[in-house]
Amino acid sequence: MKYALVLAAVLLGGCSVVGGGVDLSEPAVVASSPDVVEIQRVPFKVGVSSTTVEQLAKAQACASEQGAGLITEPGPIEVYRMQCQDGKVFMARCELRQCRKM
């Protein structure tokens, strides 16, 4: 399960919903070799630890207009993603509201 979550985070790391015009209701389809891979886009959701993750990101020189979004279901363990203005992605894992950089 942990590896699936990390894989999902890596796949989502290059996606950005900053700028509006992205339709998140339909999965994106990306062509690879002869196979077609379907990628599900995750809409931006604020979580209980979004502010904490934004402060962690700021300490790592990551600034964002949108902020940190929850990419997992709410619960005792949550993963957040933040698109930095310089193009990098900051991710954090929070367990019982105790957050650490991934």
Q: How would you characterize this protein structure?
A:
- This protein has 102 residues and is an alpha+beta fold.
- Helices cover 21% and strands 29% of the residues.
- The strands form two sheets. It has a four-stranded antiparallel sheet, covered by helices on one side. A two-stranded antiparallel sheet has the order 1-2.
- The radius of gyration is 14 Å and the shape is globular.
- The two termini are 16 Å apart.
- Residues 1-7 and 14-22 have low confidence and may be disordered.
Primary descriptors:
29% strand, alpha+beta, 4-stranded antiparallel sheet, 2 helices, 6 strands, single chain, two-stranded antiparallel ribbon, disordered N terminus, 102 residues, globular
Helix content class: 10-25%
User: What is the CA–CA distance across the termini?
Assistant: 16 Å
Overall average residue pLDDT: 78
Order of neighbouring strands in the sheet with most strands: 3-4-5-6
